[in-house]
Design a protein that fits this description.
It is a single chain. The protein has a single domain (about 10-220), classed as Orthogonal Bundle (Jann2411-like fold). Helices cover about 45% and strands about 10% of the residues. The protein has 7 helices and 7 strands, in the order βαββααααββαββα. The chain binds zinc ion. Zinc ion binds near residues 170, 172, 177 and 196.
Length: about 220
């Protein structure tokens, strides 16, 4: 039961308000906004994916710099890697949606996540330092898929072990952002109370005049 809405790709500069997921793996899913109404995809190029990765501190700066250099030299391969990352992103959105509605994730979503997760594990090494075993990125030749595999790695190792009754999809209009509710009371319903929370209240107040622009138009007006 999937409604297919046309996704518009939009150029976007990431800001703090875009980072509400609680983990970069969830923030990655949120690089498409408004999936419920007018979906916009903010990853319009591989360099944009790098910009996002830098913004959420997904990988060390030296790695991102090396990826940027490589993408400049091999734009076609970078574009293919971006497309692969987006396939993972959509699988993760589906996975989260299903977990939130207490349904089993599809086998294909789990298989894809596993594939990238394993690549993510292989990108790491164990070394001994300061009296303990540490997990570090390997110094392998840099691969374009490292962003997707790091997202998958985080999803499996950091997000999925969390209490799944705290996994949420924002109930605001034209949003559908996913996040972990780490509030004490566990009653967070919106990505941002000031944005989607108020929009929901506004809608309740004006339930009969739904022609008004949605409060999330701020998310579509920041192209550039
Ligand atoms: Zn929201």
């Amino acid at each position: 039961m999937k409604t297919v809405l046309e996704v518009r790709t939009e150029s976007h500069h990431f800001r703090n308000r875009d980072i509400i997921g609680g983990d970069p793996a969830l923030d990655f899913v949120n690089t498409v906004t408004g999936r419920d109404q007018s979906p916009r995809d903010w990853l319009d190029s591989y360099p944009r994916l790098l910009e996002w990765a830098a913004f959420v501190h997904l990988l060390p700066k030296r790695v991102l710099r090396a990826l940027a250099k490589k993408a400049h030299k091999e734009p076609a391969a970078a574009a293919i890697a971006l497309a692969r990352a987006k396939v993972l992103r959509e699988a993760l959105f589906e996975l989260v949606t299903r977990i939130v509605s207490r349904r089993a994730p599809t086998k294909s979503a789990l298989a894809l996540l596993r594939e990238h997760w394993i690549t993510g594990i292989k990108a790491h090494e164990l070394r001994f330092g300061g009296g303990r075993v540490l997990i570090d990125l390997r110094n392998d030749p840099i691969d374009f898929d490292l962003i997707a595999s790091t997202v998958a790695y985080r999803m499996v190792q950091h997000v999925l072990p969390l209490p799944m009754n705290r996994l949420r999809i924002c109930q605001g209009p034209n949003c559908s952002w996913v996040f972990i509710d780490s509030s004490k009371a566990g009653r967070r319903r919106w990505c941002d109370m000031a944005v989607c929370g108020n929009a929901a209240k506004f809608r309740r107040f004006h339930a009969r005049s739904r022609q008004r622009p949605s409060a999330h138009d701020h998310k579509s007006l920041n192209a550039g």
